[in-house]
Write a structure and sequence with these properties.
Chain lengths: 226, 257
């Protein structure tokens, strides 16, 4: 294993292990998801047509709000006991830390999204099994984009006093292309149309993911040193 | 306290005895209009140890953070192991180990997991026997699998020192390293620092603990109002004389003398 991959992997290992033990983020996010579902069900009522029309937007609203909570906390653990200093002083390319944090966030969001999709199916009596492969692809691409930009902004705002305020203000405009493409592609998939119909949105998602990833990798060292 | 000698774990890189590890010239640091350091110059060769003394707020931690490349000075120059640390900080960081005010401990990881993480991040051998030997050195081997959250402040300090044992730094920077350690811990740390110097490393210790600090240093520097007002070999000074000079220079009105 090269030094770069080893350091990215050890960051994933550390974050996943810490989260598995503390369950701080996961418990909060799952509880938040359940609350969100209650609010959605109360707002939409039992009418199935309304639910189906709003479903793509509601799904991504849930993912986005959960992401806002999760990504903002990513680097707070590094502030405790000045671990941030250790990361700055560690030799080698710092983007390995960014990629490790990103993978940890994607894993966390994958669990939260699986729970949310399951809860949507239960609360609104929906059957996702038929569209699951297409939905999984859209969720994977959308989550990668959200997590790429969320992890970077989480690092930027972690050292700021007004981070709770600044993080969503920075993240939301930057995430607009990912959200637009994700909601549109999800709508196409949930309508049961062939995945090829969603190809333009998937291409936009792929391009946005690539741009966010490259920007994150290239700028993370400056963010960490700032 | 010493179950395993401090040398048992640490890898000593070959280092010519004449090498200058730190060359700092005219360092100045201001926070807005407030000066924290003024015209600080110091050099430290391989195998040398410097103890920094000074009251709170005189710039000891600021100086250590600049030497660690964690903070950029407002002006001045800094070379670490012969390279410009201000122009290429990442090139010298592999040569620096540090235990500052923060312990760099992840509370939800166990002691051995913390060592594994920092060893891997530093590009060192993270094999379990080596990590265990480091924990044994600081007498934490019996709690290797316990989460750091359950540790006392002194145990966390020892764990931070175990991390340093695993490094390959040629410059070791310590901020109040004796705080929170019991007598046996202080004795072990003193022995470790002496062996670190003997292996060709350079050492800077900022402390309020006169006896422990002077015991590991070849030179003592007193900081007052951000300036080094005294920098002398410890061999030329008794502990009582250092205390008297400290009182006169750092606490008294006549720092110009």
């Amino acid at each position: 294993m090269t030094g770069y991959v080893r350091r990215a992997w050890i960051v994933v290992w550390k974050d996943v292990l810490s989260e598995r033990r503390s369950k701080e983020s996961l418990n909060t996010l799952v509880f938040f998801s359940v609350l969100l579902l209650f609010v959605f069900q109360f707002a939409l009522g039992p009418e199935r047509a309304r639910v189906e029309t709003a479903l793509p937007g509601l799904l991504w609203l849930g993912f986005l709000l959960a992401g806002l909570l999760a990504f903002g906390r990513t680097f707070l653990v590094e502030r405790e006991n000045d671990c941030w200093e250790g990361l700055v002083l560690s030799p080698g390319d710092k983007s390995a830390i960014y990629l490790g944090k990103l993978v940890g966030n994607v894993l966390l969001m994958a669990v939260v999204e699986a729970v949310l999709v399951l809860l949507f199916a239960l609360f609104f009596s929906l059957d996702f099994t038929r569209v699951l492969p297409g939905l999984a692809l859209v969720l994977a691409l959308g989550t990668l984009g959200l997590a790429a930009v969320g992890t970077l902004f989480g690092a930027i705002t972690a050292q700021l006093r007004a981070r709770e305020l600044l993080f969503p203000v920075l993240l939301l405009p930057a995430a607009v292309p990912v959200l637009l493409a994700s909601v549109s592609a999800t709508q196409t998939v949930l309508l049961g149309e062939p995945l090829a119909e969603a190809a333009p949105w998937l291409k936009l998602l792929g391009a946005a993911d690539l741009v966010y990833l490259v920007v994150g990798v290239l700028t993370f060292e400056f963010v960490l040193e700032a | 306290m010493i179950a395993t000698g401090p040398d048992a774990v640490r890898e000593h890189p070959p280092l010519p005895a004449s090498d200058l590890v730190v060359e700092a010239a005219h360092l100045r640091k201001t926070y807005g209009p407030t000066p924290a350091l003024e015209d600080v110059s110091l050099s430290l060769g391989a195998g040398a140890g410097l103890t920094l003394l000074g009251p709170n707020g005189t710039g000891k931690t600021t100086l250590l953070r600049i030497l660690a490349t964690l903070l950029r000075p407002t002006s001045g120059s800094l070379r670490i192991v012969g390279r410009d640390a201000l122009k290429e900080p990442s090139a010298v960081r592999g040569a620096i180990d540090m235990v500052g005010h923060g312990t760099w401990i992840y509370e939800d990881l166990t002691a051995i997991e913390n060592l594994r993480f920092w060893s891997a991040m530093g590009g060192h051998d993270a094999a379990r026997p080596r990590l265990h030997a480091a924990l044994e050195s600081v007498e934490l081997d019996t709690v290797a699998e316990r989460r750091a959250r359950t540790f006392s402040a002194g145990m966390k300090r020892r764990l931070a020192l175990a991390r340093v044992l695993l490094g390959r730094g040629r410059l070791l920077l310590l901020d109040e390293p004796f705080t929170g350690l019991d007598r046996a811990g202080r004795k072990w740390l003193g022995e470790f620092l002496m062996s670190f110097k003997a292996g060709g490393g350079a050492l800077v210790v900022a402390t309020h603990s006169f006896d422990a600090g002077l015991g590991v240093a070849d030179r003592v520097a007193i900081l007052a109002s951000g300036r080094i007002v005294l920098d002398r070999p410890t061999a030329a000074l008794g502990h009582d004389e250092v205390r008297r000079l400290y009182d006169d220079l750092a606490l008294g009105p006549g720092i110009a003398s």
